[in-house]
Amino acid sequence: MDEDGQPGQRPAVDGARENCGLMGAFGVPDAASVVFRGLFALQHRGQEGAGIVASDGQRVQSIKGMGLLADVFARRPAGGLPGTLAIGHVRYSTTGSTRIQNVQPLVVECVDGIWAVAHNGNLVNAADLRRAYQQAGAIFQTSTDSEVLVHLLADPMFRNRPRRVERALGELRGAFAFLLLTRDSVMAARDPYGFRPLSIGRLGDGIVFASESCAIEQVGAEPVRDVLPGELVVAEAKGIRSSSFCEPVTGALGQCIFEQVYFARPDSRLFGESVHAVRSALGERLAAESPADADVVIPIPDSGNCAALGFARASGIPLDYGFIRNHYVGRTFIMPETDQREGSVDLKLALVPSAVRGRRVIVVDDSIVRGTTVRRRVGALRRAGATEVHLRIACPPIRHPCHFGIDFPSRTELVAARLGIEEIADFVGADSLAYLSHEGLLGCVTQPGDYCSGCMTGRYPIDVAGERSKQDLEHGSPVTDA
Ligand code: SF4
Q1: Are strands 323-325 and 349-351 parallel, antiparallel or unpaired?
Q2: Per-residue pLDDT tens for 238-256?
Q3: 187-230 per-position pLDDT tens digit
Q4: Partner residues linked to 297 by β-bridges
Q5: In angstroms, what CA-CA distances link 4 with 66, 229, 332, 339, 368?
Q6: Residue nearest to atom 8 of ligand 1 (CA)
Q7: CA 126 – CA 410 distance, rounded (Å)
Q8: What is the pLDDT of residue 327?
Q9: Which terminus of the chain is more solvent-facing, meaning fewer CB atoms within 10 Å of its CB: N or C?
Q10: 208 - beta bridge partners?
Q11: Three-class SS of residue 240?
Q12: Res 476: pLDDT
């Protein structure tokens, strides 16, 4: 991606913001510490805030804070939260601004006990639900879309009826993976389209849930399966039960293809497939569709690594490291101002002049959002003596917004929404530019019909016309941030 970003995996600065990451454990000794370790593997999904809520069956306790997981838990280690059940969250805001009240899991006390809620995704009907509850006298503590589930759970209309959680979940539209915690249970749910990932693992006699399988492996658990679209899994003392909270989606699911292209860690299995294998295949396909005469293939680390490997393998052109990441530069994602972030991008990627000097270079990355960062990188390659720079992008142009949890900049800021491919090549200063085709992208996953690629095509699994936007939600918030 033409931005900066994440430790060990991907950059990002002038474009899309992160998803969130979820981790939960039930029936596991020192569950909060297990969740803490799992969240480490999910830090790439959000660096703005982190929290863990744990229960020992009697008391529910939490630690939350702004910033990276290690910083939040430096003074108050997760091991101080006793109990065998816990859920945790790492956050990057896609709705709701950057403030401590929005850090999850949200914890509330209803008439029948404590509920903690952790959410990944974006609810497209959150503003309508929020307004309806506010008009009925409800008070909201956060400006996140996630809080509407708390109000649904507390609503007597659902609270006093069987299948309360299923009924509450059934009111939501949009993208969600939820983890819920009560004093004596942990629950996991995914929206009917399966936009966001959520997996189940087995750890000893207990069970764990995580946004990506890399977190399940990280805690030494054995991956079991994904939470199914439209499924609620409840882990409690009497066992694990599964139920459906909606009619099955007729036709295609809406799994986010951008998770495969960019967001997830390459060592995860996502939606049933290896992210690394998918990304390598994207590179191979890209090489077949858009070859170039060149001396070397270099990735933009880390987001372009797997695709560059595939490109080099398929083209027979050697792979080399033309850029090296500095892992000790602070997290650019949490720098709120674009100028700050872009300054850090330059610090974060160092050029290796000897790898590119006098050579014709193919640069492979996963995507272009605004185009400003890649422009600086192409300029740096030329100054270092590259004789030609051919840019190859392992997904189609991103021209449309995402309504389901990925916070791309506005359409006017998306370079591919404004310019044609030749014009983008001119803008970034590349000798040639090619994107992977949409057919090529979908040809690299095993169930192409079950993926959303709305940010590339403008066609979304859910009709979002008429739904209030996340901006409406923010504007509807009674709280403004200093
Ligand atoms: S619109 Fe794009 S980023 Fe959003 S869910 Fe669909 S594929 Fe993912």
Answers
A1: antiparallel
A2: 999 999 999 888 888 999 9
A3: 999 999 999 999 999 999 999 999 999 999 999 999 999 999 99
A4: 319, 362
A5: 20, 31, 6, 12, 12
A6: 256
A7: 20
A8: 79
A9: C
A10: 25, 201
A11: strand
A12: 42
Where does 204-265 show beta strands of DSSP type E?
206-210, 222-226, 231-236, 239-244, 255-256
Map out the domains of the chain with their CATH numbers. 21-252 (3.60.20.10), 263-457 (3.40.50.2020)
The residue among 211, 188, 165 whose CA lies nearest residue 38 is 211
Vertex 92: Cα angle to 90 and 93 (nearest 5) = 130
Give the C-alpha separation, 452 to 448, whole Å.
Answer: 9
Rounded CA gap, 445 and 212, in Å?
17
Residue nearest to atom 7 of ligand 1 (CA): 453
Beta-carbon neighbour count of residue 217 at 10 Å? 18
Q: How far apart are CA 65 and CA 102, in angstroms?
A: 10
120, 257, 270, best to mutate for ligand 1 pocket (most atoms within 8 Å of CB): 257
In order of 356, 366, 380, 381, the CA distances from 385 in angstroms are 7, 24, 9, 7
pLDDT score recorded for residue 2: 57
pLDDT tens digits, 134-150: 999 999 999 889 999 99
Burial of 315 (0-12, 13-18, 19+ CB in 10 A): buried
Residue 268 DSSP one-character state: S
> Is residue 119 classed as helix, strand or coil in its secondary structure?
strand
Low-confidence residues of the chain, pLDDT below 50?
3-18, 333-334, 336, 468-482
Taking CB atoms within 8 Å and a gap of at least 24, the contacts of 221-227 are 223/199, 223/269, 224/199, 224/200, 225/199, 225/200, 226/190, 226/194, 226/197, 226/198, 226/199, 226/200, 226/271, 226/272, 227/177, 227/188, 227/189, 227/190, 227/198, 227/199, 227/200
For ligand 1, residues with CB inside 6 Å are 195, 256-258, 402, 404, 406, 452-455
Amino acid at position 58, single letter: Q
User: What's the pLDDT at 14?
Assistant: 37
Query: Reduced to 3 states, what is the DSSP secondary structure of residue 441?
Result: helix
Amino acid identity, residue 209? F
Q: Ligand 1 pocket test: pick from 191, 398, 445, 455 the residue with the most ligand atoms within 8 Å of its Cβ.
A: 455
Q: Report pLDDT for 96.
A: 58
